[in-house]
Amino acid sequence: MSAEPQAGRCLCGNVRFEIDGPVSAGSICHCGQCRRQGGHVWASAQAPRESFAISGDVQWYAASDTATRGFCPRCGSFLFWHGAGEAEMSFSLGALEEPTGIRVEKHIFCASKGDYFEIGEDGGARKP
Predict the structure, then answer these.
(1) Residues 64, 17, 85, CA angle at the centre, nearest 5°?
(2) Rounded CA gap, 49 and 65, in Å?
(3) Structural domains of the chain, with CATH
(4) Where is the signal peptide (predicted)?
(5) What is the C-alpha separation between 72 and 96, in angstroms, rounded?
(6) Each residue of 59-95: pLDDT tens digit?
(7) CA–CA separation, 16 and 57 (whole Å)
(8) Cβ distance 15 to 72 under 8 Å?
(9) Cα–Cα distance, 6 to 47 (Å, whole number)
């Protein structure tokens, strides 16, 4: 958990965000939706929704009945994931300005990962 304020942006700078609240440890998502939207895995952390200050034009896509995904309509950067009715929202670790002070602590939805690599015992990718 990090209590440091965080700031991030999309690739083109159209969407910027700041988080002023507690941030969870990071996770790497291997689900099919994240793989298809991002081209591989999605590294993210969570913070209370009310701690976000977002500027710019975020496009929200209802990826399922239970969640929406926020991205920049100009450059396509996948920035946010918000579960319906959840108090916290996930955000892309790759969009943050460094240093973040955040560490990835887990992989999630590993059973759905691509067949082109294996996750090593230490969390690193290995050849299949």
Answers:
(1) 35
(2) 19
(3) 6-126 (2.170.150.70)
(4) none
(5) 15
(6) 999 989 999 999 999 999 999 999 999 999 999 999 9
(7) 9
(8) yes
(9) 10
